[in-house]
Amino acid sequence: MDTILLVVIIAVVAVLAVAGLLVSRRRGQAPPADRGAGATRTAPPAEPRVGDDAATPTAEERRTVEDVALPAPEETEVVEEPEAPEIEVPEPSAGRLVRLRARLARSQNSLGKGLLTLLSRERLDDDTWEEIEDTLLTADIGVGPTQELVERLRERVRVLGTRTPEELRALLREELLNQLDPSLDRAVRTEGGVSDEGEERPAVVMVVGVNGTGKTTTTGKLARVLVADGRSVVLGAADTFRAAAADQLQTWGQRVGARTVRGPEGGDPASVAFEAVREGIEATADVVLVDTAGRLHTKTGLMDELGKVKRVVEKQGPVSEVLLVLDATTGQNGLVQARVFAEVVEITGIALTKLDGTAKGGIVVAVQRELGVPVKLVGLGEGPDDLAPFEPEAFVDALLG
Ligand SMILES: Nc1nc2c(ncn2[C@@H]2O[C@H](COP(=O)(O)OP(=O)(O)OP(=O)(O)O)[C@@H](O)[C@H]2O)c(=O)[nH]1
């Protein structure tokens, strides 16, 4: 019985194996059309190449654009409208110089340290006083102020007799402060007025200076200072020479919600300035800041353009402040620029930029002396709130470390 069962199982397995073999052989054979006598062998399918169709084209008729239905609305991508930039809340202006003191100290205190080291020498002979003089000159304080400072220090040290480091530091602090004239009014004039017809007028601040000194940046930063102090501002992009300058100013304005009036590239700067003031009056803004172009290297051209801007603005009311922007890193060159601008317009304040990038902080003294106008603002970095009202005490303290 067992033997019969075994034979039956072997027979069934054998039949299945033969059937399987037949099926697999049939699948591996080429289609009958290709197998006729003389039929060429087709090349094995090649790898698809760039530009090949993904699928074998069908004999279907091509459809025109009109035949193809648009995708259902819910399938389209929703493109968001660009959002209006978020209005920033700038840092209050008071005490900014104290916050930026470390930055000032980093760039300037080689001057203070150098002077204190020299003054602490056992013997203060002529050579040492000469070294003190050289240190002051290297920091761009200028010849006149240097001689004056050294003379006064020399006299006071002689009278004082004994000199402790504390006494010397106090002496130096006092004399440096003296050179900066702390009694000068350093407030940027941003108080508006009233016209003859009794209409409120915004204060108008013209920002002038050679391109590249940080003029546009300073105008933008000043807008932030004013907004931080609760004032409303309109910006005038009267630097029509470079389109990017107007864009740059507009971006600064948008960040604090201040409107920018601009004209076509190469347009008349005076007309942009006029429009900006008009906009300021209509919007009852507190301050209109006008950024001007300083590309002109010939004095006549500069005179024509700046003079015209000022005259045109004055048709609607007085200009409250003309701020000259100077780059502290340009040293004596900055003084030459200052002289040219002062001949063209009446400068009422100086904004000294890039003080973070130079050890020549003495330029503050030199430029004030040169123009008889106070340094009102100092730029201490590229950050939006790195413009500070100038405070002589904080400046000298940073110098002395
Ligand atoms: N480190 C440092 N960089 C500053 C300061 N102020 C301005 N800058 C940089 O100086 C460069 C020139 O500034 P702009 O404001 O474009 O100069 P501009 O005088 O208006 O020149 P135009 O835009 O060509 O009219 C920019 O890269 C500013 O970020 C500052 O206080 N410190």
Please give a quick description of this structure.
With about 400 residues, this protein is α/β, with parallel strands linked by helices.
Would you write up a description of this structure?
GO terms for molecular function: GTP binding; GTPase activity; signal recognition particle binding. It catalyses: GTP + H2O = GDP + phosphate + H(+). The protein is of the alpha/beta class and 401 residues long. It contains 13 helices and ten strands. The strands form two sheets. The protein has an eight-stranded mixed beta sheet with strand order 5-4-6-3-7-8-9-10, sandwiched between helices. The protein has a two-stranded antiparallel ribbon with strand order 1-2. Helix 6 (165-180) runs antiparallel to helix 13 (392-400) and helix 9 runs parallel beside helix 10. It starts with a helix and ends with a helix. Bound molecules: guanosine-5'-triphosphate. Guanosine-5'-triphosphate is lined by residues 211-217, 239, 242, 245, 353-354, 356-357, 379-382, 386.
Write the layout of secondary structure elements.
Layout: H1 2-28, H2 96-99, H3 101-119, H4 126-138, H5 143-160, H6 165-180, E1 193-194, E2 200-201, E3 203-208, H7 215-228, E4 233-238, H8 243-256, E5 259-262, H9 269-282, E6 287-292, H10 299-314, E7 321-327, H11 332-344, E8 349-353, H12 363-371, E9 375-379, E10 387-389, H13 392-400
Helix pairs in contact: 3-4, 3-13, 4-5, 5-6, 6-13, 7-8, 9-10, 10-11, 11-12
Bound molecules: guanosine-5'-triphosphate.
Guanosine-5'-triphosphate binds near residues 353 and 357.
